[in-house]
Structure formats: structure tokens, C-alpha cells
Design goal:
alpha/beta, Rossmann fold, six-stranded mixed sheet, five-stranded parallel sheet, 35% helix
Length: 265
């Protein structure tokens, strides 16, 4: 459902948000506060993966790890929900990390002290954190979804850490019908579309290319230059990369949209 506010920063702009829920609504509220009209159309669905003996073993051994990393808001929520059945009180001495401020915020809300990169929001930025520079012999647990990038775990293993993945969900493409896609793209006619992963971009193309004749002319907001390049190869005319993936960072990025000068690919 589309909605707006009276603040003038993004007044007159229509922004389509393709993040999974509940993160889409969180971004929408921030953009509405800046004056934008928003419409949420999640292009990823996060479905829980079945529990396994391996996963139960790792959560039971949580106190034996030195570092716990959540790679996304979805991973943080799923981990906290799963761990709640096993750990009514968190083990002492764990170092907690979030790849990005939104992920860290969820962990902090659970009472945890969380380290995030001083600048940036990617695995590369997290790997620059001093506490992860020399983890030889230390155990690291990574809460994540099925598939996805392997850079974080691979690099920490190369640095000598004993790394275990805890796969908590799988990403699937939602089954939006033609009417839903038409309402979000053709009828809403967004000035920009927020697409914060390569998989989200692929799903948008798959579901939207036969619905919206103007799809490739629409401006995208994407997380990193690699996804911007992927969008360009797919035929999109313009993609913006914000300095931060926070609601504030997205708002700031979108203010550059009329001039099209900032971080444009």
C-alpha cells in the first residue's frame, strides 16, 4: 500500500521498496518521513530451513565459540529466535558482529554488545574489524541463509579460524501475480526502485520484465558496485549505490536522484 508524508526532502518522489518484510516497512517509514510516497513489493521471501542435528549441535556449543556473526537482518532475527529455545541467558565472553547497522540493531535490541564496521556494510568491511584480523585457533559461528557469498567464512578460515555456518533460512522468489506487479510498477510508476541484493534484482527482472515496459528505464538503488554492474548488463539505464544501507543513507542517496550525479553507474 502506498503512503506519504509532508516533509519536503523527498517530496514528489515515488519509491518502490523490494526488501523482504519487516525490513521493507522499516525503510518505507523512513522515506515517508522524508516526504516520499512508498510502495512495498518484497522480491525475496525468507523461509525457515528444517532443523538438523548439526544445527542443534552448534547451538548447544554456543559457549565454546569466540565470535558470532549475523550476515543480515533476517539472519539476526532467525538466530535470536532459534537460540531463545536453548539459551535463556547468553553465554559470557562471546563477541557479536553484524554485517551492517540494521543487523547490529536487531542484535543490540536483544541486549547484546555488537561490533560493526566503522565504515561500510559489506563482508569486506567487516573483515577489516581489528578483532577479526588474527583469529587463528578461535571458533567463529556465522548465522546466514542458504547460499549467498562465501567470502566471510573463506577469509576467516584462511586467517586460521575454525568457522562453522549456521544456515537458518532459504531465499525464494515470491509468487506475485500480474495484477500485483502491474500495481507496483505500471500504476505506481516509481521514480526509483530499492533492490538491495543480486537475487532481488534477478527476481525483479523475472517477474517485472513482461509487466512493465519501462522497467529498464527506471532508476535502481543497489547495495554495491557489483550489483550495479549486473543491473547495467541486464539493461538498466541507471543504478545508484548509497554510502550506507541505513534508512538515512538511502534517503540521502535518493536526494541525488534529480541530478543523477552521486554514485551513478
Amino acid at each position: 500500500m502506498a503512503s506519504t508524508s509532508s516533509n519536503a526532502t523527498l517530496a514528489g518522489m515515488r519509491i518502490l521498496i523490494c526488501r523482504p518484510q519487516p525490513d521493507a516497512d522499516r525503510v518505507a517509514l523512513a522515506l515517508q518521513a522524508a516526504g516520499a510516497e512508498t510502495h512495498c513489493l518484497p522480491m525475496l521471501t525468507l523461509a525457515p530451513t528444517p532443523d538438523t542435528p548439526e544445527r542443534r549441535s552448534r547451538i548447544q556449543e554456543l559457549a565454546e565459540y569466540q565470535h558470532v556473526i549475523a550476515v543480515s537482518p533476517g539472519a539476526a532475527r532467525a538466530f535470536l529466535e532459534y537460540a531463545d529455545d536453548w539459551w535463556p541467558q547468553w553465554p559470557v565472553g562471546l563477541h557479536w558482529y553484524g554485517v551492517g547497522s540494521g543487523t547490529a540493531e536487531i542484535l543490540r535490541h536483544a541486549g547484546l554488545t555488537v561490533t560493526t564496521p566503522a565504515n561500510g556494510y559489506t563482508s569486506e568491511h567487516l573483515l577489516s574489524v581489528p578483532a577479526l584480523a588474527a583469529p587463528a585457533g578461535e571458533r567463529v559461528l556465522i548465522a546466514k541463509g542458504a547460499g549467498g557469498r562465501e567470502l566471510l567464512g573463506r577469509t576467516l578460515r584462511e586467517r586460521g579460524a575454525r568457522v562453522d555456518d549456521m544456515v537458518l533460512y532459504q531465499r525464494t522468489c515470491p509468487e506475485h501475480d500480474a495484477a500485483t506487479m502491474t500495481a507496483a510498477l505500471t500504476d505506481f510508476d516509481p521514480h526509483a526502485i530499492i533492490v538491495l541484493s543480486a537475487e532481488t534484482l534477478n527476481n525483479l527482472i523475472a517477474l517485472g520484465k513482461n509487466t512493465d515496459k519501462q522497467l529498464m528505464q527506471r532508476t535502481l538503488v543497489v547495495p554495491v558496485p557489483q550489483v550495479a554492474e549486473q543491473a547495467q548488463k541486464a539493461g538498466f539505464a541507471r543504478a545508484l549505490v548509497p554510502d550506507q544501507l541505513t534508512p538515512e543513507g538511502l534517503t540521502q542517496c535518493l536526494t541525488a536522484l534529480p541530478s543523477g550525479t552521486q554514485h551513478t553507474y
